[in-house]
Design brief:
The chain is of the alpha/beta class. The chain has a single domain (3-246), classed as Rossmann fold, CATH 3.40.50. The chain has twelve helices and eight strands. Helix 9 links the parallel strand 7 (172-181) and strand 8. Helix 1 packs across helix 12 and helix 6 (96-110) runs parallel beside helix 7.
């Protein structure tokens, strides 16, 4: 069965899209045929890989996915581009149950050629995120090491549990990822300890540090692990990729 990882958090600015891009590039580099689906109307995953958003989202048009994907600079990685069309956002979000069924049909019937599929979700708890969760086999949650991290995480987990109840036996917790880790701050260590004490082994061992190279890479249309492979953030994402693949 194709592994479909939903990268989701209801808060923006936590490294969600950056994580999706670097994981996708890292997985492709490992030899896995990989697809990244941009479901965020901001289309940052699309532009972060040097591609342009589409006028209409392929999932709205219900075109065959293999006709809509584009090749990226990374060998083995393809992208289903996002769309900034308000009409498409409304169409994807209008009827959650129907749209989830449509997306699941696309993923289950047309993605058998892929080893790894990642879905970059919008920063919300809305219907687009719930649709992506319902279509996935696991969810990866990046959270920033800040004061409100646990509060936001609890809300996200409640949504995930609701989707699990609606679609039993499909969605699993893939892991929680601590991002923007700054070891100089006491708050960072407090959040780290609190999250690990509460969630245990579900939290990835790897943490993603604050790193200028990670912030700069999207403006060049490539992943941080290719933009500056020696940067601390890049090395961390490579370690995360190995950890994620190890949990497959």
């Amino acid at each position: 069965m194709v592994r479909i990882v939903c990268v989701a958090n209801q808060k923006g600015g936590v490294g969600k899209t950056t994580t999706a891009i670097n994981l996708a590039v890292g997985m492709a580099a490992s030899g896995a045929r990989t697809l990244l689906i941009d479901l965020d109307p901001q289309c940052n995953a699309t532009s972060g890989l040097g591609q342009q958003p589409t006028p209409r989202h392929p999932l709205v048009k219900r075109d065959p996915i293999h006709e809509s994907v584009v090749k990226t600079y990374a060998e083995g990685l393809e992208l289903l581009p996002g769309s900034r069309s308000f009409q498409d956002v409304d169409a994807l979000a209008k009827t959650p149950a129907a749209q989830a069924a449509t997306l699941r049909t696309h993923l289950m019937s047309e993605l058998e050629g892929y080893d790894q599929v990642l879905i970059d979700c919008p920063p919300s708890l809305g219907t687009l995120t719930q649709t992506a969760l319902a279509a996935s086999t696991e969810v990866l949650m990046p959270i920033q090491c800040e004061y409100f991290a646990m509060e936001g995480l609890t809300q996200m987990i409640n949504v995930i549990r609701s989707v699990m109840q609606q679609h039993p036996g499909r969605l699993e917790f893939g892991g929680i990822l601590l991002t923007m880790f700054d070891e100089r701050f006491e708050l960072t260590h407090e959040v780290d300890n609190e999250v690990r004490d509460f969630f245990g082994e579900i939290v990835f061992d790897t943490v993603i540090p604050r790193d200028v190279a990670v912030a700069e890479a999207p403006s060049h249309g490539i992943a941080a692990i290719d933009y500056d492979p020696r940067a601390r953030g890049s090395r961390a994402y490579l370690e995360l990729c190995m950890e994620v693949l190890g949990r497959d």
